[in-house]
Amino acid sequence: MIVFNLVCDDCEYPFEGWFDNEADFKSQKRRKFINCPNCEKSNIKKALVAPNVAKKSNSKILKNKKTLANNIKNIKKIVEENFDYVGDQFTDEAKKIKYGETKDRPIYGEATIEQTKELIEEDISITPLPFQSNKKNN
């Protein structure tokens, strides 16, 4: 099936027509089987339409998405293997490390926006991670 944008030459009414192919359209037009839905006259022509030109390639975008997903997966693996998960105690643990109350070590966990602002105000360096942990604190 092919869809043509058509227009009536008499009343300039635009409409669509569905045909098996170009030859089917020409045959129906020649036999005056195509009528305007507005004025019912058969003086119909195809309307000009902007061509549907596909982009050169979406493969680069798709490749970048896959690369990004793989990078995030790799970061997650490194963090989960080398950092201590402290869950929702992240803010307290970060402060304890900053002020020497516990040994310095890499940690990760969860913090609310308010807790994050608090850490920044206390000049504690943090980095948001692009994933959520599968670990749960008991």
Give the topology string: H per helix, E per strand. Answer: EEHEHEHEH
Range of helix content: 25-40%
Q: How would you describe the oligomerization state of the chains in this entry?
A: single chain
Q: What is the count of distinct domains?
A: 2
Can you walk through the features of this model?
It contains four helices and five strands, in the order E-E-H-E-H-E-H-E-H. It has 138 residues and is an alpha+beta fold. It folds into two domains: 2-46, no CATH class; 59-121, no CATH class. Strand 1 and strand 2 form a beta hairpin. The longest helix is centred in the middle third of the chain and has 24 residues, at 59-82.
Brief sketch in words of this structure:
This protein is an alpha+beta fold and 138 residues long. Helix content is 37%, strand content 17%.
Keywords:
37% helix; 5 strands; 2 domains; single chain; 138 residues; rod-shaped; alpha+beta
List the helices and strands and how they pair.
Blueprint: E1 2-8, E2 14-19, H1 22-30, E3 44-46, H2 59-82, E4 84-87, H3 90-98, E5 107-109, H4 113-121
Parallel strand pairs: 4-5
Antiparallel strand pairs: 1-2, 1-3
